[in-house]
Amino acid sequence: MLEIKVCLDSSCHIRGGAKTLKIFRALIEENSLVGSVSLVADLCLDNCIQAPNVVIHGKVYGGVTPDKAEEFFNTQILPRVDDYAEPGDNNNK
Q1: CA 71, CA 86: separation in Å to the nearest integer?
Q2: What is the pLDDT of residues 66-87, one digit of tens each?
Q3: What distance in Å separates the CA atoms of residue 19 and residue 27, rounded to the nearest whole number?
Q4: Which of 5, 26, 62, 77 is the most exposed place for a label (fewest CB within 10 A)?
Q5: ω into 87 cis (within 30 of 0)
Q6: How many Å apart are CA 13 and CA 43, to the nearest integer?
Q7: pLDDT tens readout for residues 20-71
Q8: What is the C-alpha separation between 4 and 59, in angstroms, rounded?
Q9: DSSP class per residue in 25-67
């Protein structure tokens, strides 16, 4: 399962982290990836200067603002879903 964390601590929240999380949640549902992607809110990822931050399997990506969320999803998340699919997982594309 692909693990994604979105920071919602102060700097990230002010710069749209909650909206980015909401957009990711909608895109996961639209792409039938529920069960293939774990999306969670997290607190400080120690990269406040580049907020809002997203973590994909331990790698921090900064500046994932709501206006960039869909492009980020399409370029950084969708291509990785199959790499983390579990045997018998029918939710991935």
Answers
A1: 25
A2: 999 999 999 999 999 988 877 6
A3: 12
A4: 26
A5: no
A6: 10
A7: 999 999 999 999 999 999 999 999 989 999 999 999 999 999 999 999 999 9
A8: 10
A9: HHHHHHTT-BTTEEEEEES--S-GGG-S-EEETTEEE----HH
